Amino acid sequence: MIEIKSIASVGMADIIGTGVVAIFWFYLATMLDTEQYGEIHYILGIAGIAYIISLLGTQNTITVFTAKNLKIESTLYFLTLAITSVSAIILVLIFYRLDVSLIVFGFIISELSIGYLLGEKNYTSYSKYVLTQKILTMSLGIGFYFLFGVEGIIYGLALSYIHFIIIFFKIFHKFNINFPILKSRFGFVRDNYFYSLSSGFRNHFGKLIIMPLLGFSVLGNYALALQVVAVLMMFSNIIFKYLLSQEASNISHDKLKKITILVSIGISALGIIFLPLAITSIFPKYILAVDAIRIMSLGVIPSTISILYTSKLLSIENSKTVLIGKLISVLTMIIGIVVLSNFLDLIGIAIAFVLSSTIECSYLIYYNKINKGVKSD
Question: Residue ranges per domain, the chain?
Answer without folding.
Answer: 2-371
